[in-house]
Amino acid sequence: MAYIQFLGAAGTVTGSKHLLNVSGDGTGKTGTQILIDCGIFQGKKEWRERNWQDVPIAAHEIECLILTHAHLDHCGWIPRLVKQGFRGPVYATPSTIDLCSIILPDSGHLQEEDAAFHNKFKTSKHDPALPLYTLEEAQECLQYFKPVDFGVVKQVSPDVSFRFVHAAHILGSSMAEVTVNGSQSKRLLFTGDIGRVHDQHTAPGKVVYSGPQPGEMADVLVMESTYGNRNHPKTDPRPELATIIRKPSNAVEASSSPPSLWSAPRSSYSC
Ligand SMILES: [Zn+2]
User: Fold this and answer.
1) 14 CA to centre of ligand 1 in angstroms
2) What's the gap in Å between 119 CA and the centre of ligand 1?
3) How far is the CA of 208 from the centre of ligand 1 (A)?
4) For residue 16, how far is its CA from the centre of ligand 1 (angstroms)?
5) Domains in the chain, ordered, with CATH?
6) How far apart are CA 108 and CA 86, in angstroms?
């Protein structure tokens, strides 16, 4: 028997954390606990405040974390999970690990900047305002990352294995296909964010397929649906992006207004 508890990306599009419990007694508290993604909540304050809440079980009881990709709303809470006692492996593709080694310390730096801003200008009800985690704590959590290549079946407990499937979303992005063995074997597919693979002919170099191959199937599909209600344009977006990058007003603004430590707190957004 397997149970899934959605700790984020439910009712909002950030904070992806899916807790998979297998071989338990039916309460969801016993048995093997596996976390798929560990994202930070972004956006409105009511959601960001959830970043300060604990996960519903002791963090050290989580066997492992399977990470689909390196956007902060899927990985940005990992330093906090480690801070709470998680010491298991964080399985991710090699490219996802490379990206996380850059953006997680940067996220810690931003957390520290935000706290310093609030303490200087007394703009927080907390005194002192604290960072969710620091740059140093983000660097320390990287020791738990373990690379797993696409297509390789990784056994994470006697009754659970998984493999990464291409998602074509960002560099290294994957779907996690989790197999739970027991009296009845079940295959669960966590898509993470899904790329625009069918438009790949407009962007040479992209992954040419994503998701399971013809003939493969899953018993349970957990799918991101952030952009499920809109159609992407079929045209190549790169010329439009190049125009925005080269826009003279951006260049003037960038050169005349260097970022200040004491400017308004920045936030990182991803999708
Ligand atoms: Zn994403």
Assistant:
1) 9
2) 32
3) 18
4) 10
5) 2-256 (3.60.15.10)
6) 18
**Ligand 1: distance of its center to the CA of 85 in Å?**
26
| CA-based torsion, 188, 192, 197, 203: positive or negative | negative
Q: Measured in angstroms, how far is the CA atom of residue 72 from the centroid of ligand 1?
A: 8
* Pairwise CA distance, residues 238 & 149, whole Å: 29
Distance from residue 183's CA to the centre of ligand 1 (Å): 35
Q: Are 190 and 18 in contact (CB under 8 A)?
A: yes
CA–CA separation, 84 and 57 (whole Å) = 11
Ligand 1 centroid to 69 CA: how many Å? 7
Query: Is the Cβ–Cβ distance between 176 and 189 less than 8 Å?
Result: yes
What is the residue-level pLDDT of the chain in tens, covering all 271 positions?
788 999 998 888 899 999 999 977 777 677 899 999 999 999 888 888 999 999 989 999 999 999 999 999 999 999 999 999 999 999 999 999 999 999 999 999 999 999 999 999 888 888 899 999 999 999 999 999 999 999 999 999 999 999 999 888 889 999 999 999 877 789 999 999 987 765 555 554 555 567 777 888 899 999 988 777 888 777 777 888 899 999 986 554 544 444 444 444 444 444 4
Backbone angles phi, psi at 3, to 5 degrees: -125, 140
In the reported structure, the alpha carbon of residue 20 is separated from the centroid of ligand 1 by a whole-number distance in angstroms of 20
Residue 93 C-alpha to ligand 1 middle, in angstroms? Answer: 14
CB–CB of 42/48 below 8 Å? yes
Structure tokens at 5: 């508890």
Assess contact for 198 and 167: CB atoms under 8 A: no
pTM: 0.85
